[in-house]
């Protein structure tokens, strides 16, 4: 496994994957096949390994075993946090923090490259949450609202009749009588600076992949950063909890995702 941070271009990453025979790719880190003619492939591949040799990640046409091991872990992580982080310059990156219990790595993919660094096997949440851009916690009170009402607010739909279908959430206008709905509508109407979401996933002993049913979502508004989490109520109905997001609450939310998904295995 990698022992120091390294950045690898997408083409070099794909060249190693092809030569190492790692067929599976993580959805977040998937790199398309190069637009190279078959006659030109050998020269293209050589250029990628030359790039890797310059950073100590290849010897001739052989990739460093630490890089190959890291690639294999990221393809099928036994335990992971993954998602996307949006920065305030409108750039969004993909993120995978993966662990096999002995080693762990944080991978960030942008338009040009994959940026990899080793992390503590029990530090997935810290690594992933640490990528978020600085932002103050949102100003205001927490909002607790049924998922159905949150869906209405997000879609801008009027209060539905009993036979109306639910709408997808977070997309604004609501029943003016409910203060929680009004508070959520006002928040979602603010200019948005960025945001993202994280999921946890695990593989069981049979290699079957299980993913969090609901993500941890954060949004950065002019009033600050807010955390959105879906929770089951006592009667089984889903609720949306929206609250000012602090570094501690985000870290707790990410660790909660990991705890919930591992409890399902």
Overall shape = elongated
Spatial extent as radius of gyration: 21 Å
How many structural domains does the protein architecture include?
2
Percent range of helical residues: 25-40%
Percentage of residues in DSSP E strands: 25-35%
Low-confidence stretches: 162-169, 171-175
N- to C-terminal distance:
26 Å
Total helical elements:
7
Total number of strands: 13
Biggest sheet, open or closed, and with what strands and sense?
11 strands, antiparallel
Structural class: alpha+beta
What order do the helices and strands follow? EHHEEHEEEEHEHHEEEEEH
How confident overall, as mean pLDDT? 91
Biased composition (Polar residues): 167-176
Family: Belongs to the EspG family.
Keywords: Chaperone, Cytoplasm
Subcellular location: Cytoplasm
Give structural notes.
This protein has two domains: 6-129, no CATH class; 143-263, no CATH class. The protein is 30% helix and 29% strand. The chain has helices at 10-20, 41-54, 65-75, 124-129, 147-155, 179-189, 247-263; strands at 6-9, 58-59, 62-63, 79-86, 92-99, 104-109, 113-118, 143-146, 192-203, 209-211, 216-221, 224-232, 238-244. The strands form two sheets. Strands 1, 4, 5, 6, 7, 8, 9, 10, 11, 12 and 13 form an eleven-stranded antiparallel β-sheet that branches. A two-stranded antiparallel ribbon has the order 2-3. Helix 1 (10-20) crosses helix 2 (41-54) and helix 5 packs across helix 6 (179-189). The model is unreliable at 162-169 and 171-175 (pLDDT under 50).
């Amino acid at each position: 496994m990698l022992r120091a941070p390294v950045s690898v271009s997408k083409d070099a990453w794909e060249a190693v994957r092809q030569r190492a025979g790692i067929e599976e790719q993580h959805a977040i880190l998937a790199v398309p096949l190069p637009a190279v003619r078959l006659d030109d492939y050998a020269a293209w591949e050589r250029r990628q390994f030359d790039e890797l040799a310059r950073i100590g990640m290849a010897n001739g046409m052989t990739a460093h075993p630490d890089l190959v091991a890291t690639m294999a872990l990221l393809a099928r992580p036994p335990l992971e946090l993954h998602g996307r982080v949006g920065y305030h310059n409108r750039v969004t990156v993909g993120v995978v923090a993966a662990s096999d219990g002995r080693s762990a790595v944080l991978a960030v993919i942008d338009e040009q490259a994959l940026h990899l660094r080793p992390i503590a096997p029990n530090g997935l949440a810290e690594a992933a949450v640490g990528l978020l851009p600085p932002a103050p916690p949102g100003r205001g009170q927490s909002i607790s609202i049924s998922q159905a009402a949150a869906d209405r607010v997000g879609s801008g739909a009027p209060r539905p009749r009993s036979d109306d279908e639910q709408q997808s959430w977070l997309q604004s206008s609501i029943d003016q009588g409910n203060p929680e709905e009004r508070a959520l509508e006002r928040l979602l109407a603010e200019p948005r600076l960025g945001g993202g979401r994280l999921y946890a996933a695990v593989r069981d002993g049979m290699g079957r992949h299980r993913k969090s049913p609901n993500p941890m979502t954060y949004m950065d508004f002019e009033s600050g950063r807010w955390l959105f989490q879906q929770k089951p109520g006592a009667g089984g109905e889903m609720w949306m909890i929206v609250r000012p997001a602090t570094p501690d609450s985000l870290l707790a939310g990410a660790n909660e995702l990991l705890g919930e998904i591992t409890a399902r295995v």
